Amino acid sequence: SKSLRAINNAKIESFVYMPPPAAFGATRILVKPNLGYPNPPPVTVSMPVLGAVLRGLRRASPMARIVIIEGVADSQSAERIFKQLGVMDLLDDNMRVADAESLLMRDYDNKSPAPIRFKTMTAPAYIGEYDCCISVGTFKRTLLKDQPLISASLKNLYGVFPREKYHGRSPNLRGQLHRPSVPEVLQDIYFSIGTYFHGAVVDLTHKLVSPDEKSDSGEAIPIGQVVWGDDVLAVDEVACRLANEPIPDYIHAIRALRDQLEDAR
Q: Cα(197)–Cα(30) distance, rounded to whole angstroms?
């Protein structure tokens, strides 16, 4: 079906990343890993997985400028967190890191047939300008208003939005993106910037199961897999199956809207 386009999974020790077609011959590639906290995996993406992704992209495009961006959810700076987690050790001469919130921003139209809250969303201009964008997510199950919330490669995109604009009570978090609910706002995110992402990877070395809404702590349950492919929804769906978690309603809801858009074309 359309929903399960080229999706792959492999044991962590044999993971070799095969990037989507957009990466081949690209001049500029954007990688958005989940590195929002100064905590080790599975709160953040593991360096073996991120390293394998970067090597795969470099093979696909030996000359590309590769920029790794993240906007953190912590009082520490993005640069400090990148250093602490070991990101700098993975970079070659034509790779850079950037704090997503320091980049030039632009407004992206929400192309959903039924926007929930945001008609446009503000995010780095790079996302719309780069030849290839890849989301590298962790796999987490948190509890939000007593409902389980699955965070994988789509929810990972929360980190690119400027807190200056989307913060709630805490200046370190993006509280505006939690109302009316995360599953609903994910629809707006998908149809504003999610469609610019050519590929997704979910680091399922472990899944993080949190007892509350905090995604920076919890129990790490070993799964030992990596999932990747060219469609964030399908990658997240396969990740849920491997992690033995129900497919979240937001994936079904977004896919139904996407089918509606494709049928209307």
A: 9
Q: What is the pLDDT of residues 189-241, one digit of tens each?
A: 999 999 999 999 999 999 999 999 999 999 999 999 999 999 999 999 999 99
**Contact of 239 with 6, CB cutoff 8 Å:** no
Question: Is 39 buried (19+), middle (13-18) or exposed (0-12) by CB count in 10 A?
Answer: middle
Alpha-helical regions (H) of 93-170: 126-129, 163-166
pTM given for the model: 0.97
3-state SS, residue 144: strand
- Two structure tokens written together for 71: 């906007």
User: Do β-strands 147-151 and 140-144 pair in parallel, antiparallel, or remain unpaired?
Assistant: antiparallel
Q: How far is CA 116 from CA 155, 187, 193, in A?
A: 16, 7, 15
Nearest to 102 by CA among 67, 137, 78: 78
pLDDT, tens digit, 9 for 90 and up, residues 82-139: 999 999 999 999 999 999 999 999 999 999 999 999 999 999 999 999 999 999 999 9
What are the start-end ranges of the E strands in the chain? 7-11, 28-33, 65-70, 95-99, 105-109, 120-124, 132-137, 140-144, 147-151, 199-209, 219-229
Query: What contacts 59, CB < 8 A, 6 or more positions away?
Result: none
What distances in angstroms separate CA 74 from CA 19, 98, 114, 123, 227, one per listed residue? 30, 16, 32, 19, 27
Angle among Cα 61, 63, 66 to the nearest 5 degrees reads: 75
Place of tokens 């929804």: 233
- Write down the residue that tokens 């590769």 correspond to: 66
